[in-house]
Amino acid sequence: MTYSLAVLSSLLIPYAHSAPLAAAEPCTKEFLTSTANTYINSQRLGNTSSLPSIQASNFIYEENNVVKAIGSSSSLLTTALQIAHNRTIIDTTACATYTEIISTSPSPGHVVATQIRFSDNDGTLRPTLVDSIVTTQGDWLFNATKSLAIVQAEDWSPIPSTRSALLTAIDAYLDLWGNPSAPVPWGVPCRRMEGSAYTGSGLPTDSCNIGIPGGSQPPVTNRRYVVDEEAGSANVLCDFGAMRSGAPDSHEIRLEGGKLRFVHTLTVMRTGG
Ligand SMILES: *[C@@H]1O[C@H](CO)[C@@H](O)[C@H](O)[C@H]1NC(C)=O
Ligand SMILES: *[C@@H]1O[C@H](CO)[C@@H](O)[C@H](O)[C@H]1NC(C)=O
Ligand SMILES: *[C@@H]1O[C@H](CO)[C@@H](O)[C@H](O)[C@H]1NC(C)=O
């Protein structure tokens, strides 16, 4: 027997409107913000028991690109940190968050870049991946006290952009390694924080198109994206081979008027952890 399209539609529509078994919860800004705050509080306590992550059957925790148990003694989440700075961006399209954390205590401090990704688990949205780049003493230009002073003086209040502008800009910036003529939308003023080093001096003429390597460089690979069009910011966690093979790395950009205003970079130089 064959059905006309109209008959098929009348058969299918009731299912589309009743609650299907795998109904995805909407991935809202409020939900993402609240889970990111739960993550921050777990890090503050050094206790993951309130993170809903453990309940997702396929949950993965990655620290510096290495999979480990989130509750293990080598996981940063089992160390209580005083949190001097946090800032989260929200990606409702990818259903993901990115959080920047700076802690100066316990010494020598930590600067952490964490993406959380969610998917539907039997009708409930749960984190399936907590993906953290954790820097501390020994990492590229690390000094949490200096990083804290820098970020506290910057203005990251929301400045809307478009998803394509943010993706194009952050990809062009990362493409500089391997392609020095990548079309980066450089802005003026613009400042880059790398570890705790800061380009420019706070003048309206500051450019951040300085000290960018030319020539042949290992490309930036394994890029994972979080894009927040309302905030005007995008983050990529990646492997930054120009520093050392497979160096775990985080880059975040802020655009103003479609041009780069700030870049934050963390690169893990320690090996084996
Ligand atoms: C994040 O920092 C803000 C201040 O910028 C603070 O009000 C908020 O409580 C912090 N969030 C968490 C979860 O600690
Ligand atoms: C973590 O928090 C839970 C819930 O508050 C508590 O029962 C547990 O004892 C805490 N674990 C540690 C190691 O503090
Ligand atoms: C980090 O920077 C602060 C402020 O400039 C400085 O006082 C401190 O000695 C630095 N720490 C290290 C380990 O270099």
In words, what does this structure look like?
The protein is α+β, with helices and mostly antiparallel strands and 273 residues long. The chain folds into two domains: 23-137, Roll (Nuclear Transport Factor 2, Chain: A), CATH 3.10.450.50; 163-267, Nuclear Transport Factor 2, Chain: A (Roll), CATH 3.10.450. The protein has helices at residues 5-17, 29-45, 144-153, 163-175, and strands at 60-63, 66-68, 85-91, 96-103, 110-121, 124-135, 191-194, 197-198, 220-228, 233-240, 248-256, 259-267. Strands 2-1-6-5-4-3 form a six-stranded mixed sheet. It is globular. It binds 2-acetamido-2-deoxy-beta-D-glucopyranose (3 copies). One 2-acetamido-2-deoxy-beta-D-glucopyranose binds at residues 143, 145-146. Keywords: Signal. Residues 161-267 form the DUF8021 domain.
Provide a short characterization of the protein structure.
The chain is of the alpha+beta class and 273 residues long. It has four helices and twelve strands. The protein folds into two domains: 23-137, Nuclear Transport Factor 2, Chain: A (Roll), CATH 3.10.450.50; 163-267, Nuclear Transport Factor 2, Chain: A (Roll).
